[in-house]
Specification:
Elements (H helix, E strand, L loop, with lengths): L3 H30 L5 H17 L7 E2 L2 H13 L5 H24 L11 H24 L8 H10 L6 H17 L7 H11 L1 H6 L25 H29 L6 H17 L6 E2 L1 H9 L6 H21 L4 H13 L8 H6 L3 H14 L1 H20 L4 E7 L3 E4 L12 E6 L8 H14 L5 E5 L8 H16 L3 E5 L3 H10 L14 H6 L12
Parallel strand pairs: 5-6, 6-7
Antiparallel strand pairs: 1-2, 3-4, 3-5
Helix pairs in contact: 1-2, 1-8, 1-12, 1-13, 1-14, 2-11, 2-13, 3-10, 4-10, 4-11, 5-6, 5-14, 5-16, 5-17, 7-8, 7-14, 10-12, 16-17, 18-19
Length: 545
């Protein structure tokens, strides 16, 4: 039996050979999606596979052109008002290099956890909506017609009104290729995209005779970009779009990398991966390629093919190089509807309603996910993501700003629980024990203490209020001021206040606030029961000045 290392190397070689047949057709297809020449995706494919294979840390990640990054790049070029082919290539190169530099800067600043700033429902909703937008925008290529609309709904209207301009041969070619891809995906390890591409090349003379557009010339001669903005474009806008492109690429890449790291019990090194993605995108941009990231479909195909290490990606790069050198003239004869079918098939994996099932079953974040779907359709690829993130933050603030106030009662000897959930809990006479169910901060502090005042008024004999603040890791200035006002209000009614279960930062804030009704001795109750009994414990940490 061969040593394990040799077995792993053999598995990586087989996996690299297998996924090369998937990566090359997709690279050409995503170039078309990004409104760039076909060689842009091929160049980016080499840059991504080589740079990540040498620098990255995931054993399964395949860094290449992705459908989402190609769509974002196309949207950015449109927003910047770039029209000519040469200008598109030049500005796209600057955007990709800018995204790479943003990756490198984020890695140097150790911002590897920044993808957590986007909630998963936002990402899933955005991916779903983006997949629909991409599929619809590929239909003009499938139908062999020219369109001028740029928005999602305006494009649908233009397509519907221009049904008479649809070319039967082009639609037949695209739908046949799409059907073939869906059939071949059911066969384990079958290179569906490669099979469909070969069939399209063989049928190219017949299809071209019937008006079906072909890919056209591919020039793989490396050329450095000219970093000169077209007239009317602004460097600030270019930087903004570069950061947006980086953020979307990293959210997609980190999701793929983390998924397979958890599946195979591996450690994730996000900052190292940021650097690797940065180098890959800088290299791709300098060579006039599309942006690259660790797409889920390519990464999952690599794992399914039996990859054991990053050698699979390097093998894929070598295989693609051989295919390009040997078959470039054939690649130029790929029918464009076939490329559109490859793109639609690739994004179809994100158009599954089932991804939202858990949110509806849990009754959590379903509004956020649906808002993300609508945002990308209404506001576009770039602004849609910003709108979706803004909506998720606003929804969170709305939830936190609607304070839920629990009245606590005693069960057993020392435990205090919500009397709403445990009606048998005993409420201590003359005392009111309250617990905010969300962290206290500027948006909910005043409503919380207004509700607390109403409860005190409803119990005229209350002489002590105990606040259990375990949900608040810190207290901002608004929370401190309103707590001071509430304490003074209680003192005027002849009642006192004690605070229990303070986190260290919240305790330090109260010590610095020096509220008259809350001296240091009233801040060290380790439990609600201690506060009710008036039994403090000595703090282990020194009191801040």
């Amino acid at each position: 039996m061969a040593p394990p290392s040799r077995a792993f190397a053999a598995a990586d070689l087989v996996a690299g050979l297998a996924i090369a047949g998937l990566l090359l057709p997709e690279a050409v297809a995503y170039s078309h999606l990004a409104t760039l020449p076909p060689q842009a995706g091929v160049i980016a494919l080499f840059a991504g596979l080589l740079c990540y294979g040498l620098i990255g840390r995931s054993r399964f990640a395949i860094v290449s052109a992705t459908s989402s990054s190609a769509a974002v790049l196309a949207s950015a070029l449109l927003a910047l008002g770039v029209s000519g082919a040469a200008e598109r290539v030049a500005v796209a190169s600057m955007l990709v290099v800018g995204a790479g530099l943003a990756f490198a800067l984020s890695g140097a600043l150790r911002l590897g956890a920044m993808s957590n700033l986007i909630a998963r429902p936002v990402l899933r909703g955005y991916a779903f909506g983006l997949a629909i937008v991409i599929a619809v925008k590929q239909w003009p290529t499938m139908a062999g017609m020219h369109t001028t609309a740029t928005g999602f709904f305006t494009l649908i209207l233009e397509l519907a009104r221009g049904v008479g301009a649809w070319q039967a041969a082009s639609i037949g070619c695209g739908l046949t290729a799409l059907l073939g891809l869906f059939v071949l995906e059911r066969i384990p390890r079958a290179p569906g995209a490669l099979v469909v591409i070969i069939a399209g090349i063989l049928a190219a003379p017949f299809l071209a005779a019937h008006g079906v557009a072909l890919t056209g010339a591919i020039e793989l001669t490396p050329a450095l970009p000219h970093f000169v903005l077209p007239e009317g474009a602004r460097w600030l806008a270019l930087a903004e779009f570069s950061f947006a492109l980086m953020f979307i690429l990293y959210a997609e890449s980190y999701g793929s990398i983390r998924t397979y790291a958890l599946k195979h019990d591996q450690a994730v090194q996000p900052n190292r991966d940021l650097i690797a993605l940065g180098v890959a995108n800088v290299a791709a941009g300098l060579l006039q390629g599309t942006p690259v990231g660790a797409g889920y479909s390519a990464t999952s195909a690599n794992e399914a093919a039996g990859a054991r290490s990053r050698l699979a990606g390097l093998t894929a790069a070598a295989t693609v190089l051989v295919l390009v050198l040997a078959c470039l003239r054939f690649i130029e004869r790929i029918p464009e509807p076939v490329l559109a079918a490859i793109v639609i098939h690739a994004v179809s994996k994100s158009m599954r309603i089932a991804v939202f099932a858990d949110y509806f079953r849990w009754q959590r974040d379903r509004q956020v996910a649906l808002a993300a779907v609508l945002a990308v359709m209404v506001f576009g690829v770039l602004n849609g993501l910003i709108a979706a993130i803004a909506f998720s933050v606003a929804w969170l603030l709305k939830s936190l700003a609607s304070p839920r106030l629990a009245v606590l009662g005693r069960v057993g000897v020392h435990d205090y629980v919500s009397v709403e959930r445990f009606p048998q809990a005993h409420v201590v006479p003359g005392m009111l024990v309250l617990r905010p169910e969300e962290p206290l901060f500027f948006a909910n502090a005043e409503p919380f203490f207004a509700a607390a005042r109403a409860l005190v008024r409803a119990q005229p004999g209350t002489h002590l209020v105990v606040l259990s603040l375990e949900e608040s890791p810190d207290l901002d200035s608004t929370a401190l001021e309103t707590l001071g006002e509430f304490s003074a209000w209680l003192a005027a009614r002849g009642a006192g206040v004690r605070v229990a279960r303070l986190k260290e930062r919240a305790r330090e804030a109260l010590l610095r606030a020096r509220l008259a009704q809350l001296p240091a001795g009233e801040l060290d109750y380790s439990s609600v029961d201690d506060a009710v009994r008036g039994e403090c414990v000595s703090p282990a940490a020194p009191t801040p000045p």
